Amino acid sequence: MSSDTATETPHYAGHRQRLRERFLANPKGLQDYELLELVLGLAIPRRDVKPLAKELLREFGDLWSLVRAPDERLEKLNLSDGVRVTLRSIGELAERGLAAKIKNKPVISNWENLLAYCQAAMGSEREEQFRLLFLDNKNQLMADEVQHNGTVNHTAAYPREVIRRALDHGASAVILVHNHPSGDPTPSAADIKLTKDIIAAATPLGIRVHDHLIIGRGAHCSFKALGLI
Fold this sequence. Notes:
- This protein has helices at residues 11-25, 32-43, 50-60, 63-67, 71-75, 81-100, 111-122, 159-169, 189-202, and strands at 129-135, 141-149, 173-179, 208-215, 220-222.
- The protein is of the alpha+beta class.
- It folds into 2 domains: 11-97, no CATH class; 109-222, Cytidine Deaminase, domain 2 (3-Layer(aba) Sandwich), CATH 3.40.140.10.
- Strands 2-1-3-4-5 form a 5-stranded mixed sheet, with helices on both faces.
- Helix 9 (189-202) links the parallel strand 3 (173-179) and strand 4 (208-215).
- Helix 2 (32-43) packs across helix 3, helix 2 (32-43) packs across helix 6 (81-100) and helix 8 (159-169) crosses helix 9.
- The longest helix is centred in the middle third of the chain and has 20 residues, at 81-100.
- The protein is elongated and about 70 Å long.
- The protein starts with 10 loop residues before the first helix and ends in a 7-residue tail after the last strand.
């Protein structure tokens, strides 16, 4: 062993280079923790990050829940600013990319992209969120707004607020979207009543409620598909 240990190549350097080469040759060939290693290596260039990658996946369960985790939850794990910015910027970049695939495009012909965006934006949220998607007379997505962030068990959404925002945007139709943090997208009696109340308020003004989507973890339900609209 050399006496000048400062000049020795760290044991993880070769591993990291091999990961990069494997990624370039076949991006889908890496396991989740290996892909996370590459990302963490951008923020922590002089440390073996494999243990941290595995620890974070154990903590959050999957990559998407990790990169969409709120900053306060990441802070509790004593992660550096650089790591938190790296992880959250990747999540934000991915969500904006999905949003770009549906903005100003007909919703019907981009339904799978719409569901992917809603799942990405809301599927990992730990609190309920009520979101409004506003459509023009060609069913193109005009705007996307989070109307309320609620508690784990309740979101306060009022029909008059939905209608007011639709009128503000000059929308011809709206899609209601909210998440169930429990993961089960089955609509509750309150969900059904709220939807009926919004439809009753919107119809006289010529505003259609195209659908109400409930987003769970990796699952969703559509009121339209269930015959509830």
